[in-house]
Amino acid sequence: MKFIDSAKIHVESGAGGNGHVSFRREKFVPNGGPDGGNGGKGGDVVLEADPHTNTLLEFNFVKKYKAEDGHHGQKSRKTGKNGKDIIIKIPAGTLVKDIESGDVIVDLANKGDQHVLIKGGWGGKGNSEFANATRQAPRFATDGKPAIEQHLELELKLLANVGIVGFPNAGKSTLISSISAAKPKVADYPFTTLVPNLGVVKFGQYNSFTVADIPGLIEGASEGKGLGIQFLRHVERCQVLLYLLDAASDDPEKEYNTLKNELRKFNPEMLEKAEIIAFSKMDTLIEEQHEEVNSIKINGKTPLKISSVTRLNLDKLTQMLYNTIQANE
Ligand SMILES: Nc1nc2c(ncn2[C@@H]2O[C@H](COP(=O)(O)OP(=O)(O)OP(=O)(O)O)[C@@H](O)[C@H]2O)c(=O)[nH]1
Ligand SMILES: [Mg+2]
Question: What domains, with CATH codes, occur in the chain?
Protein backbone atom coordinates (compact mmCIF):
# COMPACT_ATOMS: atom_id res chain seq x y z
CA MET A 1 0.00 0.00 0.00
CA LYS A 2 1.30 3.39 -0.91
CA PHE A 3 1.85 5.43 2.18
CA ILE A 4 2.86 8.89 1.20
CA ASP A 5 0.46 10.48 -1.12
CA SER A 6 1.82 13.58 -2.75
CA ALA A 7 1.45 15.68 -5.86
CA LYS A 8 2.84 18.85 -7.34
CA ILE A 9 0.43 21.24 -8.94
CA HIS A 10 0.41 24.68 -10.47
CA VAL A 11 -2.34 27.12 -9.58
CA GLU A 12 -3.17 30.51 -10.97
CA SER A 13 -5.70 33.13 -10.00
CA GLY A 14 -7.83 35.00 -12.52
CA ALA A 15 -6.49 38.29 -13.86
CA GLY A 16 -8.67 41.33 -13.43
CA GLY A 17 -10.48 42.46 -16.57
CA ASN A 18 -9.29 45.70 -18.16
CA GLY A 19 -11.19 48.94 -17.94
CA HIS A 20 -12.71 50.06 -21.22
CA VAL A 21 -12.33 53.30 -23.16
CA SER A 22 -15.40 54.41 -25.04
CA PHE A 23 -17.68 57.41 -25.52
CA ARG A 24 -21.40 57.68 -25.73
CA ARG A 25 -22.65 57.74 -29.24
CA GLU A 26 -26.18 58.93 -29.59
CA LYS A 27 -28.04 60.47 -32.41
CA PHE A 28 -27.83 64.25 -32.20
CA VAL A 29 -25.21 64.11 -29.46
CA PRO A 30 -21.92 64.29 -31.37
CA ASN A 31 -19.60 64.38 -28.38
CA GLY A 32 -21.03 62.00 -25.85
CA GLY A 33 -19.24 61.65 -22.54
CA PRO A 34 -16.93 58.76 -21.59
CA ASP A 35 -18.81 55.53 -20.88
CA GLY A 36 -16.16 52.80 -20.65
CA GLY A 37 -17.01 50.31 -17.88
CA ASN A 38 -14.73 48.73 -15.29
CA GLY A 39 -13.15 45.33 -15.66
CA GLY A 40 -14.45 42.44 -13.57
CA LYS A 41 -12.45 40.88 -10.75
CA GLY A 42 -10.51 37.71 -11.47
CA GLY A 43 -11.50 34.49 -9.74
CA ASP A 44 -9.82 33.35 -6.52
CA VAL A 45 -7.97 30.09 -6.04
CA VAL A 46 -9.70 28.34 -3.16
CA LEU A 47 -8.73 25.11 -1.43
CA GLU A 48 -11.41 23.05 0.22
CA ALA A 49 -11.16 19.92 2.35
CA ASP A 50 -13.48 17.46 0.69
CA PRO A 51 -15.14 14.65 2.62
CA HIS A 52 -15.45 12.52 -0.50
CA THR A 53 -11.82 12.13 -1.47
CA ASN A 54 -9.04 10.48 0.41
CA THR A 55 -6.23 10.39 -2.09
CA LEU A 56 -4.24 12.88 -4.11
CA LEU A 57 -4.28 10.57 -7.09
CA GLU A 58 -6.19 12.87 -9.42
CA PHE A 59 -3.61 15.62 -8.91
CA ASN A 60 -1.09 13.40 -10.62
CA PHE A 61 -3.19 13.61 -13.75
CA VAL A 62 -4.46 17.17 -13.76
CA LYS A 63 -1.71 19.49 -12.68
CA LYS A 64 -2.88 22.93 -13.70
CA TYR A 65 -5.66 24.81 -12.02
CA LYS A 66 -6.65 28.27 -13.11
CA ALA A 67 -9.42 30.53 -11.93
CA GLU A 68 -11.31 32.43 -14.60
CA ASP A 69 -10.09 35.86 -15.63
CA GLY A 70 -12.37 38.83 -15.05
CA HIS A 71 -14.07 40.06 -18.19
CA HIS A 72 -13.14 43.41 -19.64
CA GLY A 73 -15.35 46.43 -19.14
CA GLN A 74 -17.63 47.42 -21.97
CA LYS A 75 -19.23 50.49 -23.31
CA SER A 76 -22.32 51.97 -21.76
CA ARG A 77 -20.56 51.71 -18.41
CA LYS A 78 -21.02 47.96 -18.36
CA THR A 79 -18.77 46.33 -15.80
CA GLY A 80 -17.14 43.13 -16.97
CA LYS A 81 -18.28 39.93 -15.31
CA ASN A 82 -16.20 38.65 -12.43
CA GLY A 83 -14.19 35.53 -13.19
CA LYS A 84 -15.32 32.33 -11.47
CA ASP A 85 -13.29 31.11 -8.52
CA ILE A 86 -11.64 27.75 -8.86
CA ILE A 87 -12.30 25.49 -5.91
CA ILE A 88 -9.72 22.76 -5.61
CA LYS A 89 -10.98 19.89 -3.51
CA ILE A 90 -8.36 18.08 -1.51
CA PRO A 91 -8.67 15.37 1.13
CA ALA A 92 -8.89 16.54 4.74
CA GLY A 93 -5.45 16.38 6.29
CA THR A 94 -3.60 17.52 3.19
CA LEU A 95 -0.57 19.63 3.88
CA VAL A 96 -0.14 22.38 1.29
CA LYS A 97 3.38 23.68 0.74
CA ASP A 98 4.76 26.44 -1.42
CA ILE A 99 7.46 24.73 -3.47
CA GLU A 100 9.62 27.81 -3.87
CA SER A 101 9.88 28.73 -0.20
CA GLY A 102 9.18 25.29 1.25
CA ASP A 103 6.72 26.91 3.66
CA VAL A 104 3.60 25.13 4.73
CA ILE A 105 0.80 27.39 3.63
CA VAL A 106 -2.15 25.62 5.06
CA ASP A 107 -3.18 22.38 6.65
CA LEU A 108 -6.85 21.81 6.05
CA ALA A 109 -7.59 19.48 8.87
CA ASN A 110 -11.34 19.35 8.91
CA LYS A 111 -13.79 18.40 6.28
CA GLY A 112 -15.38 21.40 4.61
CA ASP A 113 -12.63 23.85 5.68
CA GLN A 114 -11.90 26.43 3.00
CA HIS A 115 -8.90 28.59 2.43
CA VAL A 116 -8.54 31.36 -0.13
CA LEU A 117 -5.06 30.74 -1.41
CA ILE A 118 -4.75 33.50 -3.99
CA LYS A 119 -7.16 36.35 -4.52
CA GLY A 120 -8.11 37.14 -8.07
CA GLY A 121 -6.84 40.42 -9.53
CA TRP A 122 -8.99 43.51 -9.27
CA GLY A 123 -10.53 44.78 -12.46
CA GLY A 124 -9.20 47.96 -14.06
CA LYS A 125 -11.23 51.14 -14.19
CA GLY A 126 -13.03 52.24 -17.32
CA ASN A 127 -12.56 55.73 -18.66
CA SER A 128 -15.94 56.81 -17.32
CA GLU A 129 -14.40 56.67 -13.86
CA PHE A 130 -11.80 59.26 -14.74
CA ALA A 131 -14.08 62.00 -15.96
CA ASN A 132 -14.27 65.13 -13.84
CA ALA A 133 -14.98 68.83 -14.27
CA THR A 134 -11.67 69.62 -15.87
CA ARG A 135 -11.22 66.37 -17.79
CA GLN A 136 -14.39 65.57 -19.55
CA ALA A 137 -13.13 63.16 -22.14
CA PRO A 138 -10.42 60.92 -20.67
CA ARG A 139 -9.06 58.60 -23.33
CA PHE A 140 -7.56 56.13 -20.94
CA ALA A 141 -8.54 53.31 -18.69
CA THR A 142 -6.51 51.09 -16.38
CA ASP A 143 -5.70 47.43 -16.85
CA GLY A 144 -6.83 44.76 -14.46
CA LYS A 145 -4.31 43.37 -11.99
CA PRO A 146 -2.46 40.39 -13.38
CA ALA A 147 -3.00 36.78 -12.37
CA ILE A 148 -0.73 35.30 -9.73
CA GLU A 149 0.80 31.86 -10.10
CA GLN A 150 2.03 29.49 -7.47
CA HIS A 151 3.59 26.04 -7.48
CA LEU A 152 2.29 23.83 -4.74
CA GLU A 153 3.22 20.55 -3.24
CA LEU A 154 0.39 18.62 -1.71
CA GLU A 155 1.09 15.97 0.87
CA LEU A 156 -1.48 13.83 2.49
CA LYS A 157 -0.89 12.96 6.08
CA LEU A 158 -1.82 9.43 6.65
CA LEU A 159 -4.68 8.65 8.92
CA ALA A 160 -3.48 5.40 10.39
CA ASN A 161 -5.12 4.17 13.56
CA VAL A 162 -1.89 3.11 15.20
CA GLY A 163 1.57 4.62 14.90
CA ILE A 164 4.58 2.55 15.93
CA VAL A 165 7.40 4.58 17.39
CA GLY A 166 10.69 3.21 18.56
CA PHE A 167 14.44 3.39 18.27
CA PRO A 168 16.08 2.23 15.07
CA ASN A 169 16.28 -1.57 14.90
CA ALA A 170 13.60 -2.06 17.59
CA GLY A 171 11.68 -4.39 15.26
CA LYS A 172 8.94 -2.03 14.10
CA SER A 173 8.94 -3.12 10.49
CA THR A 174 9.16 -6.77 11.44
CA LEU A 175 6.14 -6.33 13.64
CA ILE A 176 4.11 -4.67 10.93
CA SER A 177 4.99 -7.49 8.56
CA SER A 178 3.94 -10.05 11.19
CA ILE A 179 0.52 -8.60 11.87
CA SER A 180 -0.41 -7.33 8.42
CA ALA A 181 0.15 -8.18 4.80
CA ALA A 182 2.62 -5.33 4.43
CA LYS A 183 6.13 -6.45 3.57
CA PRO A 184 8.46 -3.60 4.47
CA LYS A 185 12.20 -3.99 4.31
CA VAL A 186 13.65 -5.51 7.47
CA ALA A 187 17.35 -5.62 8.26
CA ASP A 188 19.72 -5.86 11.14
CA TYR A 189 20.95 -2.29 11.03
CA PRO A 190 19.51 1.02 12.10
CA PHE A 191 17.56 3.22 9.71
CA THR A 192 16.42 0.44 7.44
CA THR A 193 13.09 2.13 7.09
CA LEU A 194 13.53 5.35 5.17
CA VAL A 195 9.93 6.05 4.34
CA PRO A 196 6.92 5.14 6.40
CA ASN A 197 5.07 1.88 5.84
CA LEU A 198 1.45 1.17 6.29
CA GLY A 199 -0.19 -2.14 7.07
CA VAL A 200 -3.80 -3.17 7.35
CA VAL A 201 -4.35 -5.48 10.28
CA LYS A 202 -7.32 -7.79 9.96
CA PHE A 203 -9.10 -8.31 13.20
CA GLY A 204 -11.79 -10.96 13.57
CA GLN A 205 -13.85 -11.66 10.52
CA TYR A 206 -14.97 -8.19 9.59
CA ASN A 207 -12.81 -5.64 11.32
CA SER A 208 -9.52 -4.12 10.43
CA PHE A 209 -7.33 -1.22 11.40
CA THR A 210 -4.23 0.42 9.99
CA VAL A 211 -0.79 0.56 11.50
CA ALA A 212 1.98 2.90 10.41
CA ASP A 213 5.64 2.16 10.92
CA ILE A 214 7.94 5.14 10.67
CA PRO A 215 11.74 5.43 10.55
CA GLY A 216 13.40 4.98 13.93
CA LEU A 217 13.84 7.91 16.28
CA ILE A 218 16.91 8.69 18.34
CA GLU A 219 17.79 11.26 20.92
CA GLY A 220 18.12 14.61 19.17
CA ALA A 221 15.74 13.60 16.39
CA SER A 222 13.86 16.82 16.94
CA GLU A 223 17.06 18.70 16.12
CA GLY A 224 17.48 16.65 12.97
CA LYS A 225 19.61 13.77 14.24
CA GLY A 226 19.21 10.45 12.48
CA LEU A 227 16.43 10.74 9.99
CA GLY A 228 14.89 13.44 12.12
CA ILE A 229 11.32 13.84 13.09
CA GLN A 230 9.99 14.78 9.72
CA PHE A 231 8.07 11.51 9.60
CA LEU A 232 6.30 12.07 12.86
CA ARG A 233 3.61 14.01 11.11
CA HIS A 234 2.53 10.71 9.60
CA VAL A 235 1.59 9.45 13.04
CA GLU A 236 0.41 12.80 14.32
CA ARG A 237 -3.20 11.90 13.77
CA CYS A 238 -3.09 8.31 14.90
CA GLN A 239 -5.44 7.39 17.71
CA VAL A 240 -2.96 5.12 19.41
CA LEU A 241 0.81 5.14 19.69
CA LEU A 242 2.62 1.87 20.17
CA TYR A 243 5.98 2.37 21.82
CA LEU A 244 8.15 -0.52 20.79
CA LEU A 245 11.21 -1.10 22.98
CA ASP A 246 13.83 -3.76 22.42
CA ALA A 247 13.55 -6.12 25.40
CA ALA A 248 17.30 -6.62 25.34
CA SER A 249 17.98 -2.93 25.66
CA ASP A 250 20.12 -1.87 28.62
CA ASP A 251 17.67 0.73 29.76
CA PRO A 252 14.25 0.48 28.10
CA GLU A 253 12.76 3.10 30.38
CA LYS A 254 15.35 5.61 29.28
CA GLU A 255 14.57 4.79 25.65
CA TYR A 256 10.89 5.32 26.33
CA ASN A 257 11.58 8.70 27.93
CA THR A 258 13.80 9.71 25.04
CA LEU A 259 11.09 8.82 22.55
CA LYS A 260 8.52 10.80 24.49
CA ASN A 261 10.81 13.74 24.75
CA GLU A 262 11.37 13.85 21.02
CA LEU A 263 7.66 13.54 20.42
CA ARG A 264 6.98 16.36 22.84
CA LYS A 265 9.35 18.64 20.99
CA PHE A 266 7.55 17.85 17.76
CA ASN A 267 4.04 18.29 19.07
CA PRO A 268 3.18 18.12 22.76
CA GLU A 269 -0.30 16.90 21.97
CA MET A 270 1.18 13.61 20.87
CA LEU A 271 1.84 12.75 24.47
CA GLU A 272 -1.85 12.90 25.18
CA LYS A 273 -2.58 10.03 22.85
CA ALA A 274 -3.52 6.62 24.11
CA GLU A 275 -0.38 4.52 24.35
CA ILE A 276 0.60 0.90 24.47
CA ILE A 277 4.10 -0.06 25.47
CA ALA A 278 5.59 -3.33 24.25
CA PHE A 279 8.91 -5.10 24.59
CA SER A 280 9.99 -6.59 21.28
CA LYS A 281 12.27 -9.54 20.47
CA MET A 282 11.42 -11.46 23.66
CA ASP A 283 12.75 -14.62 22.00
CA THR A 284 16.28 -13.22 22.14
CA LEU A 285 16.36 -13.14 25.95
CA ILE A 286 17.97 -15.82 28.01
CA GLU A 287 16.16 -17.30 31.00
CA GLU A 288 17.62 -14.93 33.61
CA GLN A 289 16.81 -11.87 31.57
CA HIS A 290 13.14 -12.82 31.50
CA GLU A 291 12.82 -12.37 35.22
CA GLU A 292 14.47 -9.00 35.07
CA VAL A 293 12.32 -7.82 32.18
CA ASN A 294 9.18 -9.09 33.87
CA SER A 295 9.67 -6.74 36.78
CA ILE A 296 10.07 -3.60 34.69
CA LYS A 297 7.29 -1.05 34.74
CA ILE A 298 7.27 1.88 32.41
CA ASN A 299 5.15 4.92 33.07
CA GLY A 300 3.42 2.81 35.72
CA LYS A 301 2.48 0.09 33.26
CA THR A 302 3.73 -3.38 32.62
CA PRO A 303 4.76 -3.53 28.97
CA LEU A 304 3.34 -6.31 26.82
CA LYS A 305 6.05 -8.78 25.89
CA ILE A 306 6.05 -9.80 22.28
CA SER A 307 8.12 -11.53 19.68
CA SER A 308 7.50 -11.20 15.97
CA VAL A 309 9.56 -14.32 15.39
CA THR A 310 7.76 -16.71 17.74
CA ARG A 311 4.53 -14.65 17.49
CA LEU A 312 4.43 -14.41 21.28
CA ASN A 313 1.46 -12.23 22.30
CA LEU A 314 0.87 -10.88 18.81
CA ASP A 315 -2.82 -11.79 19.00
CA LYS A 316 -3.03 -10.14 22.37
CA LEU A 317 -1.34 -7.06 20.97
CA THR A 318 -3.76 -6.73 18.07
CA GLN A 319 -6.65 -7.21 20.50
CA MET A 320 -5.28 -4.46 22.75
CA LEU A 321 -4.70 -2.14 19.80
CA TYR A 322 -8.19 -2.77 18.51
CA ASN A 323 -9.80 -2.10 21.89
CA THR A 324 -7.78 1.05 22.40
CA ILE A 325 -8.73 2.36 18.97
CA GLN A 326 -12.38 1.70 19.74
CA ALA A 327 -12.07 3.51 23.05
CA ASN A 328 -10.50 6.53 21.39
CA GLU A 329 -12.66 6.98 18.35
N1 LIG B 1 14.89 -12.52 17.17
C2 LIG B 1 14.10 -11.53 16.78
N3 LIG B 1 14.57 -10.63 15.91
C4 LIG B 1 13.76 -9.64 15.52
C5 LIG B 1 12.43 -9.52 16.01
N6 LIG B 1 11.88 -8.42 15.46
C7 LIG B 1 12.81 -7.87 14.66
N8 LIG B 1 13.95 -8.60 14.69
C9 LIG B 1 15.20 -8.34 13.97
O10 LIG B 1 15.68 -7.05 14.35
C11 LIG B 1 16.29 -6.38 13.24
C12 LIG B 1 15.63 -5.05 13.04
O13 LIG B 1 14.28 -5.23 12.65
P14 LIG B 1 13.45 -4.15 11.87
O15 LIG B 1 12.05 -4.63 11.83
O16 LIG B 1 14.10 -3.80 10.57
O17 LIG B 1 13.59 -2.92 12.87
P18 LIG B 1 13.00 -1.43 12.71
O19 LIG B 1 12.58 -1.01 14.05
O20 LIG B 1 12.01 -1.38 11.64
O21 LIG B 1 14.32 -0.66 12.32
P22 LIG B 1 14.47 0.74 11.53
O23 LIG B 1 13.61 0.68 10.35
O24 LIG B 1 15.91 0.76 11.19
O25 LIG B 1 14.10 1.79 12.51
C26 LIG B 1 16.13 -7.35 12.07
O27 LIG B 1 17.31 -8.07 11.91
C28 LIG B 1 14.99 -8.25 12.49
O29 LIG B 1 15.07 -9.52 11.87
C30 LIG B 1 11.96 -10.52 16.94
O31 LIG B 1 10.82 -10.50 17.44
N32 LIG B 1 12.85 -11.49 17.28
MG1 LIG C 1 11.99 -0.37 9.98
Answer: 5-156 (2.70.210.12), 162-327 (3.40.50.300)
